[in-house]
Design a protein that fits this description.
With 95 residues, this protein is α+β, with helices and mostly antiparallel strands. It contains two helices and two strands. A two-stranded antiparallel sheet has the order 1-2.
């Protein structure tokens, strides 16, 4: 290996290590500890990675866990639709 190639390789390794460290930090933030039996409230699948706990509880008093992405979007959309329907029923808004 040439000196230039060695330096480039070391810099690339440093970049990879920095990215991996950043991803680990994000995983700790967005993948909090959860009960082993917790599942996604939107799709019902197990929570392996890329999930979040909402600061809400369901009808059974259990925390709401969701996969980040389409499940979170689906959950938010359905709750927004339900809220709009309740407001419409009460005559508070017109859709």
């Amino acid at each position: 290996m040439t000196v230039t190639l060695t330096i480039a390789t070391e810099e690339a390794d440093n970049i990879v290590f920095a990215v991996e460290a950043g991803m680990e930090k994000l995983r700790r933030k967005f993948a909090p500890e959860r009960p082993p039996d917790a599942c996604c409230h939107a799709c019902g699948d197990t929570l392996i990675h890329d999930y979040v706990r909402l600061r809400q509880i369901d009808g059974n008093g259990q925390p709401i866990w969701l996969h980040i992405g389409s499940c979170l979007t689906k959950f938010a959309s359905s709750h927004c639709d339900a809220a709009e329907a309740r407001l419409n029923e009460n005559g508070e808004i017109e859709i």
